Amino acid sequence: MLPLLSSKVPKSFPISLDGRNDFFCMDPKSLSIEQLNDYKREILRLINIEENNLERIQNDSNARINTYNQGISLAHKTLKSNAKHPQTISHSTFLRNFKSNGYVDPKTLTLIQLQLYIEGINEEITYEKKLTDEFKKESTARIEAYQTGIQYANYG
Asked: Which end of the chain is less enclosed by CB atoms within 10 A, N or C?
């Protein structure tokens, strides 16, 4: 039971649909006008929370992708620079320059390490986009379900 409504609603509240007993799967016809208004307010609040979470996740994802792209850009510049002015860099340089926060200075990498770095970052971008798309689908489905509940409450 939701804390917001728990003091206003009897334990038997209300009749569930499809054997479910959660508040958002209730038959609105079983609610009083006051309970129906509480139901609608709570659903609208959940829609707002869901939309805010989706926006935050999309913004966070875009920020990570932008950071990844900056790393790729720097790696490409370093590749071009190293191709013009080759440097001798030890193969163990990568591990010494890898920081625990995941940041690697591309200037300290060999050409092969740079290419692997770019491939890895491209995989991260693909994975980030996939996760964000999946969350968006799930979030959109929840919002649509909430909106259907409100429509059912209004017209059911």
From this structure: C
Is the distance from CB of 94 to CB of 109 less than 8 angstroms? Answer: yes
pLDDT at 23 over 60: no
Token pair for 93: 């340089």
Cα-flanking dihedrals φ and ψ of residue 26, to 5°? Answer: -90, 150
In this prediction, residue 85 has a pLDDT band, given cuts at 50, 70 and 90, of low
Residue 79 near residue 111, CB atoms below 8 Å: yes
- Kindly report the average pLDDT of the chain as a whole number: 76
Packing angle, helices 33-84 and 111-155, rounded to 10: 170
CA 111 – CA 118 distance, rounded (Å): 11
What pLDDT does residue 123 have?
96
Least confident of 26-40, 78-92, 135-149: 78-92
Return the DSSP state at 109: S
How far apart CA 10 and CA 91 sit, in angstroms, is: 70
Task: Judge contact between 93 and 54, C-beta under 8 A.
Answer: no
CA end-to-end span of the chain, whole Å? 23
